[in-house]
Amino acid sequence: MDTISNISGLDGLIKDCTKCALHLGRTQAVPGVGNTDAELMLVGEGPGEEEDRQGLPFVGRCGQLLTTTLVEVGLNREDVFITNVVKCRPPKNRDPLPEEVAECQPFLKKQVELIKPKVIVALGRIAAAHLLGRSVKITKEHGSLDVLPFNEDVLASIIYHPSYVLRNRNTQIERDFHNDLLEARNIAYGAVAPYQVST
Ligand code: SF4
Fold it and tell me: Is the pLDDT of residue 168 over 90?
């Protein structure tokens, strides 16, 4: 890992990785995608069924919502880097186990080291808890900032997971999701005029 100096080299390591049991059930590993000079990284908990099939993070309905909301806050999906805490799909979409996260975390740390974002957005409680190394109360802590424990130059922003927003369309949860992402975007790139959400 120390000899890896770019994201494509790291992707190769991730795709060949068999360090934890999640490799047994995957179609393929999902290293992440996007701008390798991004100021903003988004991190979910792990690939789902569609992500496992396509080899890309946040595709399907969750991905569409995330992409739409990124555009609403003035970003294209290609502007940011999107990945997950674990790079292989947990069976039946269960939460990743602590030992799986521990085995996979060097890959995420290396992605942060290479991309050097200003802000990491943790998408949902599970991703936030693993990124921050503590329990997270998402309904109270969404929109808040913390320092990334393994890289104190990077801020961590906690926001709702898009799947939770999909189950709560046209509610305060959707408005919070938009506003929290806008705030993270503004910290990473500087403020833009706020987009009016029609929910
Ligand atoms: S989840 Fe991470 S550590 Fe486990 S096999 Fe996949 S890439 Fe390797």
Answer: yes
